[in-house]
Amino acid sequence: MTFDCIIIGGGVAGLSAGLRLAEAGRKTLIMASGQSALHFSSGSVDLLDVPGDPRAALPAFIGAHPDHPYAKVGADHIIASLQALQAHCAAEGLILQHGERNHQRITPIGTLKATWLSPDSCAIAGEAAQPDTLLLATPEGFRDFHPALAAANLARQPGFTHCRILTGELRLPQLAEFSRNPHEFRSADIARLCDRHDLLADLAAEISRLTHQAQGPCRHVILPACLTLGRVDERLHELEKRTGCTIREVATMPPSLIGMRMQEALRRRFVALGGTFLTSERVLGARCIGDRVQGLYSQNGEDLLFEAEHFILASGSFFSRGLESRLRGIREPIFGADVHGSSERDRWADQRLFGRHPFLGFGVKTDERLRVLREGLPLANLYGAGSVLAHYDPVQEGSGSGVAIATGWQAAGHILSEAL
Ligand SMILES: Cc1cc2nc3c(=O)[nH]c(=O)nc-3n(C[C@H](O)[C@H](O)[C@H](O)COP(=O)(O)OP(=O)(O)OC[C@H]3O[C@@H](n4cnc5c(N)ncnc54)[C@H](O)[C@@H]3O)c2cc1C
User: In this entry, which stretches build a coiled coil (predicted)?
Assistant: First the structure.
């Protein structure tokens, strides 16, 4: 099978690259072995956790971190890559919004997290005053969102101290089938049920029951994201019409529907642009001649070579097995690429859970054009993108999806400029 470009990895980095290549008319294949980090993420896109406008902070940040993947993309291209992602999501009905500075997304445990882009269905603490009364409600028996815990934490956040935060359970007999097995009572299970049966009337009645019990006006409601795997804006709009309330959602504990919706929207868009997306297709190894990759072998047919002119390694970090931790150190399993790491295992992690963990900065080394290095030299037609890359700390910097989107877009740009 021969393509112009093959991308290993179907997360946001691989999709960002694939969308740019497919849009430019390149015959592009994405091979993904399984789920991506998006299935577990909030679905918001972090760019850089700084006070003020993170776009304006990029040049100074890049100047101070010359090895950082952002430095290999450049501030203007980072912003262009995020705009491209927004446009692709919008084409699939997923509206991502931002302001002139980071906004605070409300997390499932009621803390606030600075981020740059969020779907417009998300509960955020905007700059406007918070409402006097807020209701956090969840389906009765659902374990992946705890309104009482979220309310207790939220009440301590700046901007919420004056806010009366109520909690409640939505009694929906249709969900009784899940109570037998808590493992089947996850956000995706509820969403599938909502996608099969129209529960909106019952849900609206339950929300109204709780807001009427509020002793005083209650017009703002937050629900866990569990209403649909598809377009949620139509459902929220309908619920708002029926209840007279503003209704927003928070990401639940994983699996996270908000992230899954983004994954699915980008995959649909990629396919609509002519791309081929293969799932359950784990790449096991590569055939290289000199400094060029000729093709890839996958688990589904070791005698079949997937050939292309250009390749992008977007296989993720330890979480997705793009990097593997072995007794002797860290390795990149497909190409045996050069990896930035440390042989002293006891220095990989900080003692404190929320400390700075060096292992988060481990990853594949690349040259200035994001070409993957092996034995100190770049492979001529293999680019790296996303969380497989070295020299950044998504947690401390608040840069997770931002780096993935920017480097995927930039790697595709290098391929397109080479082909000219
Ligand atoms: C739990 C979690 C929550 C996060 N939350 C946020 C958040 O709220 N906001 C934010 O901005 N960032 C967040 N991040 C960080 C951000 O989501 C990731 O940095 C980003 O999604 C990484 O994207 P990626 O495409 O590089 O890698 P991944 O999403 O990990 O994708 C890697 C892909 O490669 C595939 N793959 C791996 N090996 C092979 C192989 N051999 N053959 C074929 N395919 C292979 C995997 O199946 C997967 O499809 C979170 C990360 C995690 C882990």
Answer: none
Which tens digit of pLDDT belongs to each residue from 329-384? 899 999 999 999 887 888 888 888 888 888 899 999 999 999 999 999 999 999 99
Q: Are 266 and 12 in contact (CB under 8 A)?
A: yes
Q: Which CATH number fits domain 123-250: 1.10.3660, 2.40.50, 3.40.50, 1.10.150?
A: 3.40.50
341 lines ligand 1 (CB under 6 A): no
2-95+260-418: CATH superfamily = FAD/NAD(P)-binding domain (3.50.50.60)
Name the closest-CA residue to atom 5, ligand 1.
41
Going 52 to 55 to 56 to 62, the CA torsion angle's sign is positive
Residue pointed to by tokens 């249709």: 174
Q: Are 163 and 129 in contact (CB under 8 A)?
A: no
Give distance in angstroms: CA of 12 to centre of ligand 1: 7
